[in-house]
Amino acid sequence: MIPELNSAPADIPHELAGDLLRGADEIAEFIFGTRESRRKIYYLAECCRLPVFRLGSMLCARRSVLLNWIAGQESRVSPPAR
Length: 82
Description:
Layout: H1 16-19, E1 20-22, H2 24-32, H3 38-47, E2 53-55, E3 58-62, H4 63-75
Antiparallel strand pairs: 1-3, 2-3
Helix pairs in contact: 2-3
C-alpha cells in the first residue's frame, strides 16, 4: 500500500494551517494591525531576528511563534527605575 502524496501524516495537527500567516502582508496585519507595514516585516526579519521562514519565495510565520517571540521581547525590557 502506497500512501497518497498529498495526504498529511496522522500525527501532524490540522490546526497548523490556521496558525500559518502567508506573506509579509498577513504578518504585518497580525503584528501591526495594517498591511501597509509590510516593509517593516522585511526589516525586522533581517535585523531583529523576527521568527519567519520561507515557503519558496513567500515569507511565512506561525501566529503562536510570533506571540512567543513578542512575549520574549517584552520580558527583555527592564522595569523603570524608581
